Amino acid sequence: IVLSGGDDRLWKTWGFPDGNILLTGEGHTDWLSGCCFRPSGTQLVTSSGDTTVRLWDLSRRGCILTLRGHARAVRGCSWHSCGDFVASASMDGTSKIWDVNSERCRYTLRGHEESVNSIEFLPFSSTVLTSSADKTLSLWDVRT
Is the pLDDT of residue 60 over 90? Predict the structure, then answer.
């Protein structure tokens, strides 16, 4: 199964090798910039130009949580390997670490001078890697 999102404001899961669409999700009001599966495979997260991050339950085929807090478009998202945290990167120059169980932002990472364009958790760690339009990469320990 492959997951995609695009300018049409939709995410889609595709079955391979046939390439048929298995599921489609709608709810964002602007383009999708990122999407990825929860490590357990039961949910996914999407990021969008509408400034939100959304969690989706695949069995319910719908959005179960909308995370708000960025002032500009969200450029990327990533799940932590434990499945309890989501990271987001925004054009507002910040990144956020979201606790999906408490449904709130745990940390806001500030330090880039321009848009944060991507974010990834390093596997099985509390370290996050961000890249920015200010031509820098940053490593963050989200515990501190």
Answer: no
State pTM to two decimals: 0.94
Helix/strand/coil for 12? strand
Burial 9-28 (b: 16+ CB within 10 A, else e): bbbbbeeeeeeeeeeebebb
The rounded percent of the chain whose pLDDT value lies above 90 is: 92
125, 140 in Cβ contact below 8 A?
no
* CA–CA separation, 92 and 131 (whole Å): 13
Alpha carbon distance 96, 73 (integer Å): 13
Q: Which domain holds residue 130?
A: 2-141
Q: CA 72, 74, 75: angle at the middle one, nearest 5?
A: 125
Q: Kindly report the CATH number assigned to the domain that includes residue 81.
A: 2.130.10.10
Q: 54 falls in which pLDDT band (50, 70, 90)?
A: very high
What is the domain count for the chain? 1
